Amino acid sequence: MTEAGQSLTDPSRLMRKGGTRYPTRFISQQIIHVDPVFNKSNPVNHTKRVLRFGTWNVLSLVGSSTQLHQLSQNIDQYRLDLLGITETHMPGSGTTLLDNGSLLIHSGRLDGIKRQGVGLSLSKRIRNSLISFTPTSERVLTARLHSKHLNISVVVAYAPTDGADESEKDKFYRTLTDTFDELPRHDLKLLLGDFNAKVSSDRYGSEAVIGGNHSIVHRMTRSSNDNGTRLVDFCATNQLVIGGTIFQHKDIHKGTWRSPNGLTVNQIDHICIGKRFRQSLLDVKVCRGADIGSDHYLVLGLLKIRLQSVAKVNAKRNDVPAIERLRDGTKVIEYNIALHNRFASLDSEVDLEGMWKAFSQTVSDVSLEVLGKRPRKAKEQHLSQKTKNLLIQRVQHTIVYQHDVIAYANGMIRRSIKSRTRPWDMSFQ
User: Fold this and answer.
1) What is the C-alpha to C-alpha distance for residues 320 and 373, in angstroms, rounded to an integer?
2) Are 117 and 88 contacting, i.e. CB atoms less than 8 angstroms apart?
3) What are the tens digits of pLDDT across the range 6-45?
4) Closest by alpha carbon to 233, among 297, 296, 169?
5) Judging by DSSP bridges, how do beta strands 269-274 and 44-46 pair with one another?
6) CA-CA-CA-CA dihedral for 354, 358, 361, 364, to nearest 10
7) First-to-last CA distance in the chain?
8) pTM for the predicted model, two decimal places
9) How many Å separate Cα 260 from the centre of its chain?
């Protein structure tokens, strides 16, 4: 028996539970809670500080090489452990390792079209807490994390716009409802994403969902849009609280989207948490300094929880001999002599399999002794220093929001990237 909310000791049993509507559930290979040979638990690490998480509509992660670089930079700058990402435009599903060691899980369209798409990034500190993830569709992604007392189920969602067809919005919320029905009942549930939903400050009948009169909508209108009404109804059904309505902040720290002309600001990206764990949510606010070329702002949340990260199993790095020293001829004579002497001392009265093992082990040992270990290759920097300086300058213009200057900066960044990646193309301009 396991405690309520905890994962089963053998991760392979998770795949035999059955009953899921979405069979494409990936079990993390980095998590092995019990050694099957000795039947002993592996060592674990507990995160003792507050979990920093958020949601961000990035508009695209595939437009150029700057997007993933800026995503890594912002994750480090704001110390984000968990980030729900919408509009990634990444087709298919899978995982990507970012420059800073964070793990990016993404779920996109299956037809190869670079539209919609959702993702979830886990920092290097907590990525070993991942139990499994389910890429449900290009609008919904689910992941489950291991914690000390109970597990965390994270759902990242990207809703259709308010002007979309009713059938498309109905389909999205049916998928989201089915996804929540599949989540373990005792888990701490987090819902992150861009819902295109303006939530009213009128709490009548929705006191359990809307935390207080701290929605930005009360400054302009007291009514929600259609997506806002759908989100409130969904949260009421699944016992969720909208985090952006709980805490009192200035309007500049509540608006998550700004129109291209800079005149309209709406609160349409939301963080929702299970009603049982509302007291564990310490704060939710907008970070206007984060820049990735999007018209949405980063929404940051603080959660008091202790994640349990399983230590890596067999994490020893295999040593590779520096065979480049054979190509340049500096170690050829010494290598041949050492190999000849070692082969002369081998026992020839063994079977064929034993001879092969001895041969391969001898070549490996001699290569490491004579040639030495191959040094780790530094990762190639895709962005020039000029491009990085332009990205830093654009952040300053984004805070003040000078639309014409930002558009000019975007053009300069694109030209700088093209001059590095396609220098032959610049000669025709």
Assistant:
1) 6
2) yes
3) 443 333 333 334 344 444 566 665 443 334 444 444 445 5
4) 169
5) unpaired
6) -130
7) 69
8) 0.71
9) 27
